[in-house]
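User: Here's a structure from my thesis project, written as structure tokens. My advisor, Dr. K., wants to see whether a designed sequence matches the one we expressed. Can you design one independently, without my sequence as a hint?
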């Protein structure tokens, strides 16, 4: 069995719990792409079986979030689930926020949250943070395509829409925008509305999946998620490749979605006319 299930993760549930629901529904190994914090909701693509081998080709996909930032204090987790570490009476105006948003578009340096899955000497950052271990994380390059103010939710809370590349931490954006406005801020809500080809429009909740008489109807074909050019093999070419014979078929160098007739085999790379399948899902 191959393909994706696009889970609309519920607030308070972990990404691992969402994967467990998919595994229970289909009885096959599976894994998720792009962890969502328990407080976050929205799009969580889960790959069935060998489909997880495609994740490495999806990491740079564009993601869209709706996020709420609450100004006036900071926490150790950079969101409202953490312990307050500082407060301020300074709350930025809408005009001040709009002025400073321009600092956070394009390629920027961002320091990940300590409460994250970033690795530090072989340990996850959140594991060290929970034990009270002092450590620092180096800044990393992230790309913000769009950072828009949507509405003022309350006196101290604003809602934003953020379009970005993979690896961006929205909690860190809350912290950094707060600093830029001469204030403090934490993330108070988050919904991922899109991740590559996956959106809320083609998502299903874990409860809907587990209650469905035919959960297969929610499977999204594996090849839909990747954008590479299609390369269709002849039966003779397919047999030789399966036998490990890499001949020069005159293929143009590049990365392709590879098919044997109508069957999607996976992602392949061609060099000097020869094709090698790098991620089999067949």
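Assistant: Designed independently from the structure alone:
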């Amino acid at each position: 069995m191959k393909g994706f299930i696009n889970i609309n993760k519920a607030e308070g549930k972990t990404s691992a719990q969402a994967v467990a629901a998919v595994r229970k529904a289909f009885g096959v190994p599976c894994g998720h792409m792009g962890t969502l914090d328990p407080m976050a909701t929205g799009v969580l693509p889960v790959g069935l079986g060998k489909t997880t081998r495609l994740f490495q080709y999806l990491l740079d996909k564009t993601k869209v979030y709706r996020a709420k930032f609450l100004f006036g204090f900071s926490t150790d987790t950079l969101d409202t689930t953490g312990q307050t570490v500082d407060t301020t009476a300074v709350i930025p105006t809408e005009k001040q926020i709009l002025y400073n948003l321009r600092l956070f578009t394009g390629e920027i340096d961002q320091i990940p949250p300590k409460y994250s899955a970033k690795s530090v000497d072989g340990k996850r950052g959140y594991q060290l943070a929970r034990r009270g271990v002092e450590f620092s994380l180096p800044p990393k390059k992230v790309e913000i395509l769009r950072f828009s103010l949507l509405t003022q939710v309350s006196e101290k809370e604003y809602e934003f829409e953020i379009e970005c590349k993979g690896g961006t931490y929205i909690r860190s954006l809350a912290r950094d925008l707060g600093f830029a406005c001469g204030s403090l801020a934490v993330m108070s809500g988050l919904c991922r509305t899109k991740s590559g080809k996956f959106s809320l429009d083609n998502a299903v909740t874990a409860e809907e999946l587990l209650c469905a008489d035919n959960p297969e109807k929610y499977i999204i074909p594996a090849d839909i998620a990747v954008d590479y050019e299609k390369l269709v093999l002849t039966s003779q070419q397919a047999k030789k490749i399966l036998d490990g014979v890499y001949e020069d078929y005159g293929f143009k160098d590049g990365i392709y979605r590879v098919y044997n007739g109508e069957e999607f085999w996976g992602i392949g790379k061609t060099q000097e006319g020869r094709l090698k399948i790098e991620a089999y899902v067949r």
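When you compare it with your expressed construct, this may help: The mean pLDDT is 91.
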